[in-house]
Amino acid sequence: MIGTANGVAISITGLGCHVPERVLSNDELATMVETSDEWIVERTGIRERRIAAPEEALSDLALPAARAALEQAGLKGAEIDLVIVATVTPDMAFPATAAILADQLGARDAGAYDLSAGCTGFMYAVAQAYGMLAGGLSQRALVVGGDVLSKIMDWSDRTTCVLFGDGAGAVVLERVGEGGFLGFELGADGSGGPQLFLPAGGSRTPASGDTIGEHLHFVKMNGREVFKFATRVLVSSAEAVLAECGRAIDEVDVYVPHQANVRIIEYARNKLGIPEDRVVVDVDRYGNTSSGSIPLALADAQAEGRLEAGTLVLMTGMGAGLTWGSGLIEWTDGGRG
Ligand SMILES: CC(C)(COP(=O)(O)OP(=O)(O)OC[C@H]1O[C@@H](n2cnc3c(N)ncnc32)[C@H](O)[C@@H]1OP(=O)(O)O)[C@@H](O)C(=O)NCCC(=O)NCCS
User: What is the pTM assigned to this prediction?
Assistant: First the structure.
C-alpha cells in the first residue's frame, strides 16, 4: 500500500526512548559463543547492545519511553486517546502491552492494542496512527516501538544472538499547522516468512512448559536470505515513497534506516545516493532492537540536534513477515494546528 497525506497535517510532537542498563559487549559474547569482536564488527558494525534484566519486560522499557515522549509533547497520559505498541515481544500474549501501558499512563479512554510486523512494526504503527488521526477517529496518539528480543534469543546460536538487543522508543502524533507526514509505503511478502520466525507460542505450536520443545521458542533466521531481502526493500521502499510524495532523494536531510547491520545500511545509502552525513547510525551501540530501532535512532538524531522544523526525514524499516515500510516526514517543532 502507498499513499500521500492529503490535506491534514499530522506530525510527531513528542519523542522519547529507553534502553536497559546492562551493556553486553562483543568481547563478553565471545565468552558465550564461538565468535569475536573482530568478526561481529566487520560483518555487522555492532560493538555492544543492551540486555533487559530477567524481571524486565517490554512495558518496563515502553513506560519511560512513553513518559519522555508525552513530556516533550507537553501532554498528560489522560489526553491520549490511542495507544499502539509495535512489538513481537509483548509482556504476554494477552492482554496487549498497549492496554497495560495505557493503564500505567492514565490514558483511560484510549483504544489500545499491539501490532506485529517484525522490525517494521514501528513504521506500520505510525502509518496506522496517522490514518486514525487523519480520519478523525483519534486526536492524540501514542505509538511505541520496542522489543526485548534477548528473551527469545538462542544464546548458543552465534548466527543470531550477536545481532540483536533490547530497547524501546515512543512518539506522540497530533494534528499540526503545517508540515508533518507526507506519505507512507508499506508492504509484506508472507512467502518469505520462514526466513525469520519464532516457531512456537502461537496456535500452530502452542507455548509449552515442556523443555523438549524449548528450542522452538527461539528466533530462527536465514541470515543470507534476510540480508538480500533487506538490501532490496530498503532501496525500493524508499524510492517508492519519495516518488509518491514528489520528493527527490537529495531533498532528504536525515535518513533513518532500520538499524540491523551497518553493511545493509551502507548498501542502501550508496544505492540511494544519500551522503554519509545524512544517515543516522546507532546499531554499533544498540544492535538490532527490532521495533525499537527506528524510534531509538530518531531520538538519537534529535539529541544530536539534527531534527529541526522543516527537516525532511526518510524512515525505512524491514523485518519479519517479511515486511517493509517507509515514511516521509517534514519535521515540525511541536506547534499544533
Ligand atoms: C547474519 C549476517 C551478519 C552474517 O553475515 P555473512 O557475511 O552473511 O556471513 P555468513 O552467514 O556468510 O557466514 C560466514 C561464516 O561466518 C560464520 N559465522 C556466523 N556467525 C558468526 C559469528 N557470530 N561469529 C563468527 N563466525 C560466524 C558462519 O558460520 C560462516 O562460516 P563458514 O563460512 O565456515 O560456513 C548477515 O547475513 C546479516 O546481517 N543478515 C541479515 C540479518 C538481519 O539483519 N536480520 C534482521 C532483519 S530485521
Answer: 0.95
Cis check for the bond before 216: say yes or no (omega within 30 of 0). Answer: no
The residue to which cell 553486553 is assigned: 24
Gap from CA of 220 to ligand 1 centroid (Å): 13
- The verdict on whether 288 is a catalytic residue reads yes
Instruction: Take residue 85 and report the three cell numbers written for it.
Output: 505498541
Kindly state if the Cβ of 292 falls inside 6 Å of ligand 1.
no
| Strand, helix or coil for residue 151 | helix
Q: Is the CB of 226 under 6 A from ligand 1?
A: yes
CB 325 within 8 A of CB 317: yes
* Tens-digit pLDDT profile for residues 136-187: 999 999 999 999 999 999 999 999 999 999 999 999 999 999 999 999 999 9
Ligand 1 atom index nearest CA of 160: 1
Q: Looking up cell 524508499, which residue turns up? A: 238
Q: Are 230 and 260 spatial neighbours (Cβ–Cβ below 8 Å)? A: yes
For residue 136, what are the contacts with CB-CB under 8 A and spacing of at least 6? none
Is the CB of residue 20 less than 8 Å from the CB of residue 61? yes
27-37 pLDDT, tens per residue? Answer: 999 999 999 99
Q: Of 104, 143, 105, 110, give the one whose Cα is nearest residue 126.
A: 143
Rounded distance between C-alpha atoms, residue 220 and residue 192, angstroms: 13
What are the residues whose beta carbons fall under 8 Å from the beta carbon of 179, sequence distance 6 or more?
9, 11, 309, 310, 329, 330, 331, 332
Q: Which of 17, 119, 161, 245 is catalytic?
A: 119
The stretches of 201-279 forming alpha helices (DSSP H) are 223-245, 262-272
